[in-house]
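Researcher: Can you fold this with protoporphyrin IX containing FE in place?
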Amino acid sequence: MSTTAHSDLGSIDLADPRVWDGGPPYALFKRLQREDPVHFSPQRSAPEEGGFWSITRFDDVRAVSRDHKTFSSEKRGIFHFDDIGVPLDIQRLQMISMDPPRHDRLKALVIKAFTPQRVAEHEAHIRQIIGHVLDGVADKKQFDLVAEVARPIPARVIGSFLGTPPEDDAKLVYWTNVFTAFEDPAIREQWSDTAAIVTEVIEYVNGLIEQRRQNPQDDLITALMNAEVDGEKLNELELATFFILLMSAGNDSTRATYSATMLELLRNPELLAQLREKPELIDAAVEEGLRCYPAFAFMARAATRDVEMHGKTIKEGDRVLLWYLASNRDETAFDNPDTFDITRPGLADKHQAFGGRGRHFCLGANLARLELKLWIEQTLKRFPDLQLDGEPTRVRALFLNQYNSIPVRRTS
Ligand code: HEM
């Protein structure tokens, strides 16, 4: 179908921070879906990076995600910048920025640890981690839901999968922020240090490996250090970048979804009442949280050849952003897409928070679902009187759909 962009849409630059001043531009995304489904943004704020195409329709996000031959993750990585402070060559050592066949071989090394059955074995421990963190704020009248609850829980959960000790959690969260919140001005100032952090991570992972040589454990570090791909062990840089991927993907993601879902519930007492009356709706609340507030606003691909879509020519090498933030609210895929509706049927199979069901579909989806369910359930049970206590603030980053702070208070 050929689409002619409405003239004012043609001048819109989705990378312009002013477009995001009032939060994600959902109304603009709706117009793009209807009038300009393959839209070009020049990314004027970073001219050296060039522009990007935006894919916003649900069906198009799925089609592009499934066509890894035309839309590569490896050519230019998954961000809207080539230069995130870590060169593309190093980014490409992570399977998320790789194409098949190497991507598939690396994913096979870890996928068994994240099946529903294996994840379910961690349930008691995850409950314990959540309980411990909630205990830490139980005596406070006021606290910050992001800093004091949403940050430490996923850090410890993924740390326990990897095999890192609890005392290192804060350092690992800091490292992952440097890699994924690279647009944040406070982080950007440290760009020159990013290479130094890669060296620190290599040293850190080498230390973990040395400990496991003496004392093997049933954890992901042990699995990775023993794994072979095409008959070869992973080298120290490959191990360190794999570690960073699992740490960042495990941290940023559930932290963001928990925070946004809790905020939605705190702002809508009728939803809370619905959940109290029918606790079995908790799974639906998790899915609706994932759909309405995908943790990653998009993942990028780059065209491997010139390709026509909706009357536009995407040139070889052009960057293409798959906006889950938009596709999860596509009115052709979901009725009343802007309504957080925990009675919506058949949702789990449909939304694209975990990707458009291509080769890169989220490795941690089963873990994220279990973690979010236990976590939201326990928060509501422990703090039935929780209320918002000020304006939440958002992380200013195109890629991360995240809150920095959600002040809350207890009324009893
Ligand atoms: C709310 C939670 C989460 C969300 C919304 C989320 C979302 C995503 C998305 C959108 C992708 C890319 C899909 C694509 O490009 O097609 C992805 C990939 C990935 N996720 Fe998650 N994720 C979450 C939790 C986790 C957790 C807890 C882990 C822990 C290990 C994890 C590990 C990964 C990895 C390793 C990849 C790369 C997979 C590949 O390249 O094949 N994610 N995730």
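Model: Folded with protoporphyrin IX containing FE in place. Residues 65, 95-96, 107, 158, 245-246, 249-250, 253-254, 257, 290, 294-296, 299, 353-356, 358, 360-364, 367-368 surround protoporphyrin IX containing FE (CB under 6 Å).
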